[in-house]
Amino acid sequence: MIPYPVLSTTALVVVHVKSVLRALRHRLLHHPVRMLSRRLASHLKRVSARSFASTSSISASHNHWSTNHSEPSSQTVNLVEVGPRDGLQNEKSGIISVETKVELIERLVRAGVTNVEAGSFVSPKWVPQMAGTSEVLKSLYHVPSVHYAVLVPNAKGLSDLLSLLASNPSSPSSPPLTDEISVFTAATSSFTRANLNCTVAESLQKIAPVVREARDRGLRVRGYVSVVVYCPFEGRVESRKVRDVAKELLEMGCYEVSLGDTVGQARPHEVAEMLEEVLTELPAEKLAGHFHDTYGTGVANVLTAVPYGIRTIDASVGGLGGCPYSPGATGNVATEDVIYALQESGYRVAGSWTGDSSSDFSGRGTVDLEQLVDIGWWISEKLGRQNASRVGRAVKARREREEKQREKEKEKSKL
Ligand SMILES: CC(C)(COP(=O)([O-])OP(=O)([O-])OC[C@H]1O[C@@H](n2cnc3c(N)ncnc32)[C@H](O)[C@@H]1OP(=O)([O-])[O-])[C@@H](O)C(=O)NCCC(=O)NCCSC(=O)C[C@@](C)(O)CC(=O)[O-]
């Protein structure tokens, strides 16, 4: 055993050497030649990503679903609201009724959300909360330009969904129950074994025909890669694995791949490192950021991803959710917190369906933060859980202060 004083001296030496190395690295990074080569490297990265987009099966000319949610404006950040799926699937407070799920989704759409995950066609033995997804889709008021996506893990899930769509056909006056599915895998086989009962390679083999058939039936397909930075079973994940799995999903025909920090443990610099690797081969327009907030870095990770060109962010109202494989994990980054952080930053958070002219669903250009705060409180109270959105809590406190002030002024005016 090493005696304590020797250990602490060794530790001091290590710290000193580390700080010298850090300073050296900083100098090197900012050396003009190094900076030039970095610029060259990032140019090459962009060229390589562009050439991927133009030569692979995701090329715009070959794929009518090839665009993601992104609007033309590069300053627009598009939101995918995952609360009704990723959030509710992990709720432990008893089975949530179809009525509550439907009301949650309809409230979100009224607030301006255009991309919402409405549920999953997965095994009810694995995820009991998602069992009523068919009923949810049938009960929803469908706004034509809103995407009500559902998760599909395998051929059985797709076949169940297609039967539902066949027995509830769309018409000029009623849009289809859904026009989008999401398939999902991960960067590590330990995670896919826990989540899908197979390895990453096996999951990709199962997903490929699902993507093909869904697209043949006119559905657009989004892909997910979980555990892109940390895996609860394997620890730090190699970014090249993330890149390779995401690339495979895009080549299969997913219009976008969402990169998930499933356990919410990633730090911003680790997200940056992961993105730098993924972007060497894939275009940012085909990627989305999906951050959980377990360690409180969710918003920081969103703000790290956006300057890399990531223009689609998944989030969950009230920060609903958790992760069954990561004890203590909280939900997705809260939608309210993401919107607040991006306000007045030069970016606009879109949910801009043109809308129909019905009185309940009036079209909006952006997602309405005040309404989302109300929804976050409504669903948190309904489920008997804490509201995990910091912005939600702050706005509520501000409203209470303003109400008290108004009452005081009323009293004064009576005197
Ligand atoms: C994929 C399976 C089904 C494999 O599970 P399995 O046990 O290997 O399935 P199987 O093929 O052996 O079938 C077993 C039974 O399940 C049934 N079954 C089989 N497939 C289905 C289906 N689609 N829908 C309904 N039932 C199904 C099948 O019919 C059979 O029924 P039985 O004969 O025993 O009565 C299972 O592992 C599963 O459902 N996994 C899904 C888990 C899940 O939903 N996880 C959460 C979503 S992923 C996520 O949250 C991460 C994400 C996306 O948010 C991003 C991030 O944060 O990182």
TrEMBL record:
Transmembrane segments: none annotated. Residues 397-415 have a biased composition (Basic and acidic residues). It is an enzyme of class 4 (lyase). One of its GO terms (molecular function) is hydroxymethylglutaryl-CoA lyase activity. Pfam families: HMGL-like (PF00682). It catalyses: (3S)-3-hydroxy-3-methylglutaryl-CoA = acetoacetate + acetyl-CoA. Keywords: Lyase, Metal-binding. GO terms for biological process: ketone body biosynthetic process; L-leucine catabolic process. Residues 387-415 are annotated as: Disordered. Pathway: Metabolic intermediate metabolism; (S)-3-hydroxy-3-methylglutaryl-CoA degradation; acetoacetate from (S)-3-hydroxy-3-methylglutaryl-CoA: step 1/1. It comes from the Eukaryota. This is hydroxymethylglutaryl-CoA lyase.
